[in-house]
Amino acid sequence: MAVIEFDRVGVTYAGADRATLHEVSFALPEGDLCLVIGPTGSGKSTLLGAINGLVPHFTGGTLRGRVLVEGRDTARHRPRDLADVVGFVAQNPMQSFVTDRVEDEVAYGMEQLGLSPTAMRKRVEETLDLMGIAGLRRRPLADLSGGQQQRVAIAAVLAAQPRVVVLDEPTSALDPTAAQDVLAAVTTLVHEVGLTVVLAEHRLER
Ligand code: ADP
Ligand code: MG
């Protein structure tokens, strides 16, 4: 069964004279890695945002057609109503951090889940290990490299154990080595954890 379904989806932003997305249809099976490619301005972020309802609930604009995520219609579900299914990692992780330290940031994503402190500590450990950043646990987020910050942002989203992770150009601010580390971490999620990943990228060589 498809975990994400777009049925003739259109998005037109307020004041725009043409649609940013027009008649977009696809069905994404669980466990796939889906790459969204295209030059800047082609609508990659718009498509990604439509998956968890950022578009149109936070961006404004008009959504046509239908987006279903695990059967939930995003026209009637806001991003927080979809957070247990879709984790969204924005392009600039520093802007989305809500705490100052690595382990606090990862724990924050779990606090809504009502886990016991012991279960929560265990899951923070596992998630940091999975992303290869266990050694950074107590470091301030501001001191990390771009690649490390990006992996913390992914770990923070994984904490809620979503089935889909959406990443908007996760390597855009990174040098080639850091980019490789982040993409290797993403590959692990798909192959070892069985997550469905949607990733926008404009540098195909990566
Ligand atoms: P990409 O991620 O491929 O660079 P975007 O989805 O960000 O593309 O943008 C596609 C088009 O939609 C651009 O013309 C951009 O200016 C416009 N756009 C994107 N977000 C908004 C918004 N929140 N409000 C109005 N226009 C937007
Ligand atoms: Mg974009």
Describe the structure.
This protein has 206 residues and is of the alpha/beta class. The chain is 35% helix and 24% strand. The protein has 8 helices and 8 strands, in the order βββααββαβααααβαβ. It has helices at residues 44-52, 54-57, 79-82, 93-96, 102-108, 117-130, 146-158, 176-192; strands at 2-12, 21-29, 33-37, 62-69, 72-73, 86-89, 164-168, 196-201. The protein has a 4-stranded antiparallel β-sheet, with helices on one face. α6 packs across α7 (146-158). The longest helix has 17 residues, at 176-192. The chain starts with a strand and ends in a 5-residue tail after the last strand. The relative contact order is 0.17. The mean pLDDT is 93. Adenosine-5'-diphosphate binds next to α1.
Search tags:
206 residues; four-stranded antiparallel sheet; 8 helices; binds magnesium ion; four-stranded parallel sheet; binds adenosine-5'-diphosphate; alpha/beta
What's the quick description here?
By secondary structure, the chain is α/β, with parallel strands linked by helices.
Rounded mean pLDDT is 93
**Structural class, from helix and strand content?**
alpha/beta
Question: If helices are DSSP runs of H or I spanning 4 or more residues, what is the number of helices?
Answer: 8
Sheet-strand content, in percent, reads 15-25%
Strand order of the largest sheet: 2-1-4-5
Q: Work out the radius of gyration.
A: 17 Å
- The SSE string, one letter per element, is EEEHHEEHEHHHHEHE
Spatial separation of the terminal alpha carbons: 30 Å
- Runs in which pLDDT lies below 50 for 5 or more consecutive residues are none
Major β-sheet profile = 4 strands, antiparallel
Number of DSSP strands? Answer: 8
Shape: globular
The set of bound ligands, ions and cofactors reads: adenosine-5'-diphosphate, magnesium ion
Helix content: 25-40%
